[in-house]
Design goal:
alpha+beta, 13 helices, globular, GHMP_knse_ATP-bd_CS, transferase
């Protein structure tokens, strides 16, 4: 049987449902996968000895290209150890490799440097790709070159896990293309998959995606990549994660206010309050944790928002979203750090498409951007060479997840 010539990988974004800010103080938070907002990466096999990375959504109109032979493999331990499914040992981050890759990243744009420059965000995206490829390359099993095309529904910098979605797609595609995991064979997603069990491909994907997140963020929590890998919903307490068994899909309208949020500033604001009035703020944080433990009650959405507002992390743009959605008897709350950013609105089963259109139009008139999405859907998904996909078809598709109905899932 011939080896696959391409893979199409899809992974969801994430949204914090309950527990914002309280999680910083050791309380429980709940995050869920954004099934309607995903990153997609098409990996195409080539035999020219080159790695080509295309990032049009990040503003790069020409590809970045590197010879496979130019990568610093001497900085990497044996691949067989690095991809051992049965190892429960945490992967060590390779600072030396990342340092060696910095000038190589810029070399990828050498032929086009007079036409385009690569900014910091684009350099980080390229660094993630090269870090993972160099770490995972196996001369016995690897493709002799590849073209990688990236697109995404997720806005960058909105706190919706766009970087983790990208990291999970990259880790999955490279682990497949470089022969470290098999193609999944299930057409049914399973969002109740356990986070334990080091022998599973999903665990290996999650561990390498976490390494990619370290390239991007330095010290990530691990929540975002876990949600993008496994899907469903995740509870997070004091650094410990577990999936929420039996989580039911929920329909939300997600509104990006496009007000730049500063997570560090919002966290610091709450810390000042906590240090000054611990006897008042701690019960608020306890109440917010209570929402995480009883998140199926619709009324708690409003209460959770009021509690977060009492900590000073609200914003007038968030209030406007709540006013507009409340006119249609819908419940909304800020999600993430607050101070702008995004707002979650739970959509009732009986709401009509006309009503949703009116709400989105009213929000758009204020410069906001809204997306209908399900929370709690499938994690990473794969289509292999059994389905013919052209680059043009991939890049021109409006809704890739629905266009291709033959996604396979790891179990």
């Amino acid at each position: 049987m011939s080896s696959p010539t391409h893979y199409l990988i899809s992974a969801p974004g994430k949204v914090i449902l309950f527990g914002e800010h309280a999680v910083v103080y050791g309380k429980t938070a709940i995050a869920g996968s954004l099934d309607g907002l995903r990153t997609y990466i098409l990996f195409e096999k080539s035999d020219d000895g080159l790695l080509e990375l295309n990032l049009p959504k990040l503003g790069l109109h020409l590809p970045l290209i590197w010879p496979i032979s130019a990568l610093p493999y001497s900085k990497v331990a044996a691949v067989s150890k690095a991809t051992d499914n049965n190892s429960s040992q945490e992967l060590a981050f390779n600072e030396e490799l990342l340092k060696e890759l910095k000038p190589i990243v810029l070399d990828g744009n050498a032929k086009n440097k007079d036409i385009q420059e690569i900014n910091e965000l684009q350099q980080v995206a390229a660094s993630v790709f090269l870090y993972l490829y160099t770490s995972l390359e196996d001369k016995q099993n690897s493709w002799c070159g590849m073209k990688v095309h990236v697109t995404s529904d997720l806005p960058v910098g909105a706190g919706l896990g766009s970087s983790a979605s990208y990291s999970v797609c990259l880790a999955t595609g490279l682990l497949l293309a470089l022969g470290h995991i098999p193609v999944p064979n299930s057409n049914e997603g399973n969002t109740d998959t356990s986070f334990s069990g080091y022998s599973s491909p999903m665990n290996l994907i999650n561990r390498w995606a976490f390494q990619a997140e370290k390239v991007i963020h330095g010290i990530p929590s691990g929540i975002d990549n876990a949600v993008a890998t496994y899907g469903g919903a995740v509870s997070f307490t004091k650094g410990e994660m577990e999936n929420v068994i039996g989580f039911q899909l929920l329909r939300f309208l997600l509104t990006n206010t496009k007000i730049s949020r500063d997570t560090r500033a919002q966290v610091a604001k709450v810390r000042v309050l906590y240090d000054k009035y611990p006897h008042i703020v701690d019960p608020i944080l306890e109440a917010i944790e209570g929402m995480s433990l009883s998140f199926n009650e619709i009324e708690l959405i409003d209460i959770n928002h009021y509690l977060l507002n009492s900590l000073g992390v609200g914003h007038s743009s968030i209030d406007r979203v709540r006013e507009i959605t409340a006119q249609h008897s819908l419940h909304s709350k800020l999600t993430g750090a607050g101070g702008g950013g995004c707002v979650l609105t739970l959509l009732r089963d009986d709401i009509t498409s006309d009503e949703i259109t009116k709400i989105k139009s009213a929000l758009a008139s204020l410069g906001f951007e809204s997306f209908e999405t399900q929370v709690g859907g499938n994690g990473v998904s794969v289509i292999d060479s059994s389905v013919t996909i052209s680059k043009q078809e991939f890049l021109s598709s409006e809704n890739i997840q629905q266009k291709f109905s033959v996604w396979k899932h790891f179990t």
